[in-house]
Write a structure and sequence with these properties.
By secondary structure, the chain is α+β, with helices and mostly antiparallel strands. The chain has one domain: Arc Repressor Mutant, subunit A (Orthogonal Bundle). 38% of the residues lie in helices and 14% in strands. The protein has a two-stranded antiparallel ribbon with strand order 1-2. The chain has a two-stranded antiparallel sheet with strand order 3-4. A two-stranded antiparallel ribbon has the order 5-6. The longest helix is centred in the middle third of the chain and has 17 residues. It starts with a strand and ends with a helix.
Length: 125
């Protein structure tokens, strides 16, 4: 994933988490069922909390506010994209490398939501 010209890799589970949150799926149990769909309900809450923790650390390591992944007490999580700095750039083309399961998105900022929505649509083709 590239945000503000910084490229970093995300795991398949992190990709599924971001897709859930962008589609408005915020309830913990729903996120667990989608992110770990191949385990058919054999996932503990600890796996969910570890995924959230690691994604926040990934955001922080890449100079993004980790607070943009917000916890909703006794419910789940949500993305707060208002914490991203505003950039007056357009979204560049998105490329997906299935071999590494990485995503390259360019020039996000204010267009972050639109870019990730485009990734989501391309994944379900």
């Amino acid at each position: 994933m590239t945000i503000n010209s910084q490229c970093f890799e995300i795991t398949e589970k992190h990709k599924r988490l971001v897709i859930c949150l962008l589609k408005g799926i915020t309830q913990k149990n729903d996120i667990i069922n989608i992110v770990w769909y191949e385990q058919a309900g054999m996932v503990s809450d600890n796996n969910y909390h570890q995924l959230i923790h690691k994604f926040r650390n990934l955001l922080l390591e890449n100079n993004l506010p980790k607070a943009m992944l917000r916890t909703i007490p006794r419910h789940g999580a949500m993305l707060d994209l208002s914490l991203l700095p505003k950039i007056e750039e357009t979204v560049q083309p998105i490329t997906i490398s299935q071999a590494k399961k990485t995503f390259t998105l360019a020039a996000l900022g204010a267009c972050f939501t639109a870019a990730l929505s485009m990734v989501t649509k391309s994944l379900y083709r």
